[in-house]
Write a structure and sequence with these properties.
The complex is a heterodimer of chains A (about 100) and B (about 270). Chain A has about 100 residues and is an alpha+beta fold. Chain A has two helices and four strands, in the order ααββββ. Chain A is globular, with a radius of gyration of 18 Å. In chain A, about 30% of the residues are buried. About 5% of the residues of chain A have low confidence. Chain B is about 25% helix and about 25% strand. Chain B is built from six helices and nine strands, in the order αββαββββαααβββα. Chain B is globular and about 75 Å long. The N and C termini of chain B lie far apart (about 110 Å). At the A-B interface, α1, β3 and β4 of A face β5 and β9 of B. β4 of chain A pairs antiparallel with β5 of chain B.
Chain lengths: ~100, ~270
Amino acid sequence: MWMLGRRDWILATALLSLGVACATPSAFEISRERATEIARSQVSFQPDSIEAERSISSARPVWRITLRGRLPAQPPGLFETVIVEVDRQSGAIVSLART
Amino acid sequence: MSTRMMARMALALMIAVGAATYVSATHAWGNYHWARKSNPFTLKVGDNLSGTWDPHLTAAVSDWSLSDVLDLTVVTGGTKPRVCKATAGRIEVCNERYGFTGWLGIAQIWASGDHITQAIAKMNDSYFNGAPYNTPAWRQLVMCQEIAHDFGLDHQDEEFDNTNLGTCMDYTSDPTSNQHPNAHDYEELDTIYSHVDSTTTVGASILPSKMPPAMGQINFDTPGQWGRLVHSSENRRVQVFELDFGNDNRVITHVFWADSEHDARR
């Protein structure tokens, strides 16, 4: 049977701690509504749906806002999609994705 | 002034206004651009593609490198297609079955202010493996467009059923004549990159966040890297260390020390 050595415990707990520290909501984070407002400023179409979730991007805690909508005559099954990652503490845009 | 002359002047004015509208029409993606100190600059594009996609990347890179301000060069990919993780200072291009997500291709940029620090482009084989998108024309259009988003270009037109503009930055239902950039795309790139910056994000190897680079280089094996002891249990088997990098950047190390004597008795 494989036993965890002291070094393994140290590494595992250190990584676990780092992960928990990154994922824990900060007391100073911007609201979901504010993050959504920031994300909406980045799209030119009228979104049909907006999703917001807490996430981590490049080691930064972010709101990940996904906006979807359909453009006129857009082929069936396809959507205009924009994903905006907003820094949960500063409100700065960390990343944008678009189709 | 005769009526005929007034009509000519009015026509000339209308043409001038029309021309000015075309020239000033922009399709930049916000103000996002790669920071660099001079033009032209060379951007590396990581190839994480299957063989089907490689010719399309080659063609797109060749097309966009005709720009006066930008050169693209294909390098070995730095990620797995499924995760398509970004690499600082360059573009990573991937293809995979990402599911029926509603998008054929998606481009993502990471920004520091207006400066792009890294980017990815993903081609969704969930759609390209079947009709109607399983054609070279559709693949070329999407490859050309997603890469261009990664250096700051937006769509020229988002109507699917109007006449094609002859550019991959034009949404269409028929990609036949929209597989490559057009002159206006190159003009737009000239506009976006008409200035130079005091810094560069092209080819940078720094982490694209406020996180100090040293935080990514910690060797957890050695207690000397854990910082100061901030908590210790009575029997000292549980201890907490904190390494402070400033600006609220901290690494906290929880240690559950093994009790070798106790463990040996078990």
